């Protein structure tokens, strides 16, 4: 994987937009990511990891730090990364989640994270998409992990090598080391397999225990069902306890089968005895039934003979009742005709009275129009057809005239409303005329008022238009004022740095002078130092003579080699302090010079005065913005009100014309209606009064005609009913109606008479039939039966049969229960043996995988064994570089022993072999520099193994994080040499450090520098 370009904005300390051209700094294969501590070097690495995986590089760090605290609220935070893999070039643009101001109203709202990822055309420098972009977070994440070939954890351990992480890995206990290796190599599947085998072992043990419990339960059921004795129960339990994976099942089956057979034979014997007892009970029951039936027949014959005697005594009374019933039925048949004839005569009298009442109520208008019709006169006059015809004619004339007046009655009723409508319309015309005059006066004052509002709005608009100009000027002045404050602070810091630099220079000069003086003194005193080591007879190391006639003496203030080494260390420390002071002084000088160049031509006093004036102008302009809006709204409201009033006046004028025309129409209609009503009155006060008289005449004529018709109908009906009655009397042999009325019997008495006759006849027939039955005739005159003796015999036989049946039922149930329980015991024994057989291999395999089984000699679990093999690969890959970086001194090895007593597992311990002493060392005893390059070798070895595990992924770009400051010059050269080998293999290595020596060794670099006002900037330097 090769990184091409990355653009970021509002990320970490970078407030603005910055672009990193990785291709430019990757030409030589090695580049430096340089900058002071806290300036933002790690932010660039976090941005790369975030663009690809949506999270920063460190697992402990929060993603909230991505949003820049220096960015403006409306500036979007994003990272735009272009990278190349074997399958092509891809571009991903990702934004973090952060709080942004609401577009409407006050406060903030959560801006959700987003992503866009697409494939890029190879030769397109703009990064235009060659395919539809992925916009869902989950889809883009899966696609990036697919094309890169690494998970985030693997990426951070192979592309970004954090020194601190692997220093912790080097010193970690085996448990922590196990967790990291498992996360990187994805060996959780072996852990899950080990856990699953343990679960399967537990399940197998539970199945065995469940089968054993089921066998015990089935055995207890069999003992209870078969009611076994203590000896038989103990023998059965002992046989059951012997059941295992391969033995005991057949013995249990044979034993329980024997008990089941014995109980079955006892049940068969009990069933046979019960059947014999049931036959005796049936015979006794038959004898009892015969005795009961004979006793019942004798009692019935006695009752029938007694009833026959009573019926013979009542025979004459029965004959008289039959004759009386026949005469009463004939009278009942003609009674409806008698009642009908009486009702018809009553209806004739009622109808005659109704005619008389109608004639008495007739108005004078009716009697005057019909000759011969006189109130309180004879009703028979209406039998004259001529009189009836006159009444009908009067009614028809009255109906016609009243109908003709109905419309005029309505006109008469509406006259008052129409007169009122004419008055209201005339009043409305006057009201509308007044409204038009008021509108004319109001509209005449509107133009002058509008002109005044327009002038005020124009002035406010002109003043408000300058608000952005004043705001921009104020922001610039505020930035300039802040820069003046920062410049003052930087000048103070520069003065302090100059003093510190001068003091460091003085101290360094003194240290150099003292070291030189000590070296000179030591050289001067070397003769005396050598002389103290001369021995008579041994050669001098200077002249070779064995004689030492005049040995040089050692001065009292002789300088030793230790004194020179101490002075050399003090001089080195003083020079290092001077270098740091010069570096700080240079940075502050550069900052002050840059600020002075930016602020040339301005003074703090001038800026303060300009700030006050511009603030006042901006406040006035912002006030004018509100005034302009208010005046514009007022002008709009003024125009709308004027237009609305003009439209209302036009509507009022049109309405006045319409109402004026309507007054004339209403008056004409009113005049016509009044003339027609006056004509229709015809001498009556009103049309309604005339119509009421006509309707009264019509109603009286109609009532009189209906009464005459009802009277005629009643007389015809009475004649018909009399003829029917005369025929019925003759048919029933009644002399007249009075004779029929005398023969009538009440309905209740008639029903009682019929019921008595019917009951007597039925009783005679019932007694005759009963005495004629075969069973009654077959009885001997002196027949008798002993019923109590038969009942006693049947009761004794039934008790014996019930006892035999109960004993047989118990025996059968016991045999059936024992047979089922025996089958359950056999099945349970088989299941227990099968559970033993099935659970054995699982238990052995689970013990082997967990490291607790006897077959696992080393006691390593499956997951630990797999990780140990991967760990060996990592150690082997790390040693290839470690031997070179340490000049062959150090080598890593995996140990089977526990690193400390707190370790729970073996297999992931690690030791460092020191080939100078040939002794293994705890990694925690290494110095800071040694820990750095040993950790770096581990990280590079891990990267090689992960790459191979992932299918040989090309790791084109590699970042090595801080830690170089702990190395001496020689070791630093060795580390850079190994990194150079990575470069020769086609990788691009980015070194993250602020060590000055690396700036001299690495030409291509990305410089990150903090600005005076807080945020950072960067630049790319490529040769």
**Average of per-residue pLDDT values:** 78
**How much beta, percentage-wise?**
5-15%
Q: Outline the low-pLDDT stretches.
A: none
Q: Note the total helix count.
A: 27
Shape: flat
Q: Which fold name is given in CATH as the topology of the domain at 415-523 and 555-670?
A: Helix Hairpins
The major beta sheet can be summarized as: 6 strands, mixed
Task: Supply the CATH class of the domain at 415-523 and 555-670.
Answer: Mainly Alpha
Number of DSSP strand runs: 16
InterPro entries: P-loop_NTPase, Rad50/SbcC_AAA
Protein name: Nuclease SbcCD subunit C
Domain Rad50/SbcC-type AAA: 6-215
Subunit structure: Heterodimer of SbcC and SbcD.
Task: List key phrases describing it.
1023 residues, alpha/beta, Helix Hairpins, five-stranded antiparallel beta sheet, flat, Nuclease SbcCD subunit C, P-loop_NTPase
Describe this structure in words.
With 1023 residues, the chain is of the alpha/beta class. The protein has a domain at 415-523 and 555-670: Helix Hairpins (Orthogonal Bundle). 68% of the residues lie in helices and 9% in strands. The chain is built from 27 helices and 16 strands. The strands form four sheets. It has a six-stranded mixed beta sheet, with helices on both faces. Strands 2-1-4-5-8 form a five-stranded antiparallel beta sheet. Strand 15 and strand 16 (1016-1021) form a beta hairpin. The longest helix has 78 residues, at 604-681. The relative contact order is 0.15. The mean pLDDT is 78.
